[in-house]
Design a protein that fits this description.
Strand 12 and strand 13 form a beta hairpin. This protein folds into 2 domains: about 350 residues, Alkaline Phosphatase, subunit A (3-Layer(aba) Sandwich), CATH 3.40.720.10; about 55 residues, Arylsulfatase, C-terminal domain, CATH 3.30.1120.10. By secondary structure, the chain is of the alpha/beta class. Strands 1, 2, 3, 4, 5, 6, 7, 8 and 9 form a 9-stranded mixed sheet that branches. Strands 10-11-12-13 form a 4-stranded antiparallel sheet, with helices on one face. It is built from 11 helices and 13 strands.
Length: about 450
């Protein structure tokens, strides 16, 4: 089944076409340019959403969003951990190209991971491109692409193209109502941890109201699903890592997203607003696989449970309702070219390092596309000291490199050892290693993967 690969000349042609985003599709011509709201939940697994078959919490608002829009079953993050996964979304590049391969932390910790201290402002930037094409842009929520701990001089939000911002401690400009202490959250914060989702979504509605004369792009990056789970004042210091607390946090998150969606409808913005809901990486802990719907792996793992995540697209009249797309492989790195296409924004042809994402706007707007023209790559792990997961998580531990091409996913270590091959269309839980059955395919994919690894900074 692996002889579906395109001829080399056609691959080169397709890659070359990524240098500029094609015009907006015919169905969008003549229409007002849409608002784009990207809601990113931190460490959320498909098992936390009823629409994806999850049982961890009751999520009627997000389930209704999925019923009114399209649910994607084969969405992949750019990394199994927060900072690089967000880098992939912003830049459209595999994050290791910008020297971000783990969570950004202290300068010493970043150096030990062979990382930069913040996202280079010279990198491609989705908000900057949209701003240059006439969009008002904002970031509300977690950032974690520079700032916090002892990194005192990260670029400001404006360097990436944002007009307005309100963020948490791990950012260049933390909001004072969220950062009473020198940590991610504090009991003394004016906006309590359990009220953050409401705070960020209220900021988003206010921003939309203040910019009625122009289209808006807003990142709303929610950190509530990330532990510790603190659903109320009474829950502080009381089993914040419990499944019961996670359930309460998720139900509050769902409630606030529902309130926001109702607000869009009441304001008459629903017919011209694309809302995307996704997760940045897999959950941890998984509670015996309940949060990953039984997929192998977790946050910090390159198995499906660490990188295959829920994605919902919602736009009445443009995104088909009550649709499940199980055919399209769509990645976080595709968001830059895809959203630029939907917004009618031209992607500059001189982007440094080229682009790794491809335009999947057709799939987002209801045309499934099972034929992906480019390969997806991942990296998590460069040494056993700074990347000490997965010692205590057993079978969730994965090799450090992975590649996905069509239905085939190969994982291995940088020296080529511990090679694993899975047909993830038929075996999404990665139960059967097919290395011995397909030696030629293994050689081909491994060669591509190790060559990609060597190309990284």
């Amino acid at each position: 089944m692996w002889n579906h690969y395109l001829p080399s000349w056609k691959i080169l042609f397709l890659l070359g076409s990524l240098c500029a985003t094609p015009p907006v599709s015919n169905r969008l011509r003549g229409a007002e340019r849409p608002n784009i709201i990207f809601i990113l939940a931190d460490d959320l697994g498909a098992g936390e959403l009823g629409a994806f078959g999850g049982t961890v919490a009751k999520t009627p608002s997000l389930d209704n969003m999925a019923a009114e829009g399209t649910r994607f079953d084969r969405y992949y993050s750019a990394s199994p951990i927060c900072s690089p996964s967000r880098c992939g979304l912003i830049t459209g590049n595999f994050p290791a190209r910008w020297k971000i391969n783990s969570y950004l932390q202290t300068r010493a910790g970043n150096k030990a991971c062979e990382m930069a201290d913040f996202l280079d402002p010279a990198a491609p930037s989705l908000p900057r491109i949209l701003k240059s094409s006439g969009y008002a842009t904002a970031h509300f929520g977690k950032w974690h692409l520079g700032g916090g701990r002892d990194v005192a001089n990260p670029p400001k939000f404006a360097a990436y193209g944002y007009d307005e911002h309100a963020s948490t401690w791990e950012s260049p400009e933390p909001h004072p109502d969220l950062t009473a202490g020198n940590w991610v959250w504090s009991k003394m914060d004016k906006v309590k941890r359990w009220d953050r989702t409401a705070f960020f979504l209220d900021k988003t509605m206010d921003f939309l109201g203040q910019n009625k004369g122009k289209p808006c792009f807003v990142n709303v990056w929610l950190d509530d699903p990330h532990s510790p789970w603190v659903p109320s004042d009474e829950a502080i210091d009381k089993k914040t890592g419990s499944e019961a607390n996670l359930k309460k946090v998720m139900e509050e998150t769902d409630k606030q997203v529902g309130r926001f969606m109702d607000g869009l409808k009441k304001a008459g913005l629903d017919n011209n607003t694309l809302v995307i809901f996704a997760s940045d990486n897999g959950p941890l802990p998984t509670f015996q696989g309940k949060r990953t719907n039984g997929l192998k792996g977790a946050k910090l793992s390159l198995y499906e449970g660490g990188i295959r995540l829920p994605l919902i697209a919602w736009w009445p009249g443009k995104v088909p309702a009550n649709r499940v797309d199980s055919q399209t492989v769509i990645s976080a790195v595709d968001m830059l070219p895809s959203l630029c296409a939907i917004a009618g924004a031209t992607v500059p042809t001189n982007l440094p390092l080229g682009q790794n994402g491809i335009n999947r706007s057709g799939a987002l707007l209801g045309k499934p596309d099972p034929n992906r023209s480019t390969t997806l790559f991942w990296e998590y792990g460069r040494n056993t000291k700074s990347f000490d997961y997965p010692k205590k998580y057993g079978s969730d531990s994965s090799p450090w490199l992975a590649v996905l091409d069509g239905p085939w996913k190969l994982l291995c270590m940088p020296d080529g050892s511990d090679t694993q091959l899975y047909q993830v269309f038929e075996d999404p839980k990665e139960t059967k290693n097919l290395v011995l059955e397909h030696p030629e395919l293994v050689d081909l994919l491994k060669t591509r993967l190790l060559s990609w690894k060597k190309s990284l900074p």
